[in-house]
Amino acid sequence: MSRKAKARRRPSWRRRLILASWLVGLLAVAVRSGQVQSVQSVTWRAMAEAQQTTHMEVAAPRGTILDRDGAPLAVSQETYKIGVAPHELRDVDQVRRLLEETVGLSPRKARQVVSTERRWGVIPGTYPPAVRETLSGVRGIHLERQLERSHPHGGLARGIVGRVMEGAGRGGIEQQLDDWLGGTAGREVVARDNQGRPIPGEVFQVAAPQPGGEVVLTLDVDLQEIARQALHEAVASTGARGGDVLVTDPHTGEVLAMVSLRDGQTTGLGAINTPYEPGSTLKPFTVAGLLQLGLGSLEDSVDVENGTWRVGGRVLHDVHAEGVMTVSDALRKSSNVGIAKAAQVLPHGRQYENLRDFGFGTLTGIELPGEARGTLPRPREWSAQSPASLAIGYEIAVTPLQMAMAYGALANGGLLMQPRIIKEIRDSRGRTMERTEPRAVRRVVSPAVARSVSDVLVGVVADGTGRAAQLGSLSVAGKSGTSRAYEAGGYARGRYYASFAGFFPAEDPELVVFVKLDDPQGAYYGGAVAAPVTRATMEAVLAARVTPLDRTKLLHAPRPGPVAATAPFRFAANNLTAPRSEMAEADPGAPPTRLGSTVRVPKVAGLATRVAVRRLHALGLRVRQDGPGEVVGTRPAPGALLQPGDTVRLKTLRRADG
After folding, report:
1. Residue 504's pLDDT is what?
2. Is-contact 658 631, C-beta < 8 A?
3. Fewest Cβ atoms closer than 10 Å to its Cβ: which of 145, 307, 417, 506?
4. What dihedral do alpha carbons 158, 161, 167, 170 form, nearest 10°?
């Protein structure tokens, strides 16, 4: 082959080699491209989305907590924070004017917010959803949604309601029904820039949040306010460290009001989690056990030995020296010796079972967290003194709620009811999903025994230790109690618990009222300092409520005097026998009313909320509040004629902090 032919042949071979290399490279690129787009597409797509977007949780509106009549106790309010990106604004002057009109900014502050000298500005405070309708479409303005828990009645029932911290319920109903109230969070996608920062306005909702359900309580805001007011005034008047007030329905077990005051605060639940030795308020249950077991009668005689009796190495004393008296008189006069002696016939096991049957030493089952069961030692743990001590309310620790439910059993004919604080559970649309019904735990005593003991308790109020709880011609059954406060190592010198439990009307009881004061100064007997609180509470209930009382029963009873205001007593700190005329003090400026009369709405603007509520309650009017704060007016306006039982709404002004 010639040199020319060989020269022509070499380029052809090289071209083929180059072409093959290109083909192999293209094939490799195609294979890799296919691998990326098909096999690894999910992985790369996820990485891209992670760089360009972020998923965020959208909080769900928390469900509302209502009182028995629908008054809101805790609600979730949607509010917005407003941010401004000045460099994104198209018309600075228009946005400035819009901010002045919509959120009330001063011209100076509005100019600062939209100034292009800053990249980002935040308007202080939070604003209602109305700003969303006006500002959401404005370029350069960015709204951040927030949910705030609001309490329209302030701290009225804060201990029962609980609170919300970091999106979770803490204490009370908020904790007990956290899953139901909390709802289901939604999800949204937020676009991010090349530095990973969220792009304002680039938000896309993936799943909408589902609001939480509603909870309707058995509480009544009017009765709760009455109880709180009575307790506050009693603590202030007696110098007590705190106390508890409960109002319950003996037939259903519903808790209508429950207030615990400690260190000036009503945010706790001392009524269910702080046991104490009850003293004489336990005596009716000892007598009921004797009658139920057929081991004694109210007419049995007992020698109280002039008020001093030694038993098991301990000496029991009575306030008054007596000789022989009946068991009925021993209960009416609250004789320690008489009741302890009468209880000697009780076998230890039966005495224990009797107290246990009334609910002591065990949980009541109320739908609130943190309940204490108290202390009721078993007979094998008793000393020689224990039977006598237990008979008169010592060596046993009970909660105020247990006492209220036990007295409810005497009031309703012998049935121990389970306490109820939840009335209904509803979904987010208000449809009832669950309704709690009254539940009797057990029959403790027969109706005849319950009636016999109740009749004696009427005598306690009529001419015994509970005279300060008398309620005109309406008969009240009740029992006072005074017990020494126990501290680590023994009983504290000079410290006492004063208590009183009562129910009315005694012939057909509708309400049980239990009051306990911790360490009152000066006078400390339950009949002197706790019984007046019971009467004050009952009088205010009569004045302020249409329900839960059956007013038709009360209208037929003659009423010798006007219905007094809430907590109408001035406590005589060192006078145990002060006559009622000296203890009663009407609320100035609030003329009392009788059932069926008309009243004029008084002028309460400028008053403290508590004083305004008391004045309206004294007129027999129900009260609703816009919220905590200074009273600025009422709806209806002052001077309007209303019937007792009508509702007046207080308009309040909440002052900004600082």
Report:
1. 86
2. no
3. 145
4. 80
The per-residue pLDDT for range 110-128, each reduced to its tens digit, is: 777 777 677 777 777 777 7
Is residue 481 a contact partner of residue 449, using CB atoms and an 8 Å limit?
no
Residue with tokens 């006559």: 579
393 DSSP 8-state letter: T
Query: pLDDT (tens digit, 9 = 90+) per residue, 456-467?
Result: 999 888 877 777
Is the predicted pLDDT of residue 402 greater than 90, yes or no? Answer: yes
4 vs 141: CA distance, rounded Å? 81
- Element (H or E) spanning 592, and its range? none
Bridge partners (DSSP) listed for residue 258: 246
Annotate 321-385 with three-state secondary structure: CCCEEEHHHHHHCCCHHHHHHHHHHCCHHHHHHHHHHCCCCCCCCCCCCCCCCCECCCHHHCCCC
Q: What is the pTM of this model?
A: 0.75
Tokens 């911290």, located at residue: 165
How far apart, in whole angstroms, are the C-alpha atoms of residue 59 and residue 164? 13
Dihedral, CA atoms, 166, 169, 174, 178, nearest 10 degrees? 110
Please check whether residue 375 is in contact with residue 362, taking contact to mean a CB–CB distance below 8 angstroms.
Answer: no
**Above 60 in pLDDT, residue 595?**
no
Residues ≥6 apart with Cβ < 8 Å to 461: 467, 469, 470, 475, 476, 477, 478, 502, 531
Pick from 210, 181, 158: nearest CA to 433? 181
- What pLDDT does 190 receive? 62
Question: How far are the Cα atoms of 283, 339, 409 from residue 446, in angstroms, in the given order?
Answer: 18, 21, 10
What is the rounded CA–CA span in Å between residue 9 and residue 3?
10
Helix and strand element counts for the chain (H, E): 22, 28
Residue 218 DSSP SS3: coil
pLDDT surpasses 50 at 579: no
First to last CA, the chain: 108
C-alpha closest to that of 392 among 465, 460, 331 = 331
172-187: buried (b, 16+ CB within 10 Å) or exposed (e) per residue? Answer: bbbbbbbebbbbeebe
* Beta strand residue intervals within 28-136, DSSP E: 53-58, 65-66, 72-84, 121-127
Q: Which residue has the higher pLDDT, 370 or 57?
A: 370
Tell me which of 335 and 111 has the higher pLDDT.
Answer: 335
Position 580 pLDDT exceeds 60:
no
Residues 6 or more apart whose CB falls under 8 angstroms from that of 23 comprise none
For 639-643, the CB contacts below 8 A with 24+ separation are: 639/600, 639/601, 640/600, 640/601, 641/598, 641/599, 641/600, 642/598, 642/599, 642/600, 642/601, 643/598, 643/599
Buried b (16+ CB within 10 A) or exposed e, 298-324: beeebebbebebebeeeebebeeebee
Q: What are the Cα distances from residue 82, in Å, to 144, 235, 630, 655?
A: 6, 46, 28, 22
Q: Do you know the residue count of the chain?
A: 658
Q: What is the pairing mode between strands 477-487 and 440-443?
A: unpaired
Question: Would you state the pLDDT for residue 587?
Answer: 30
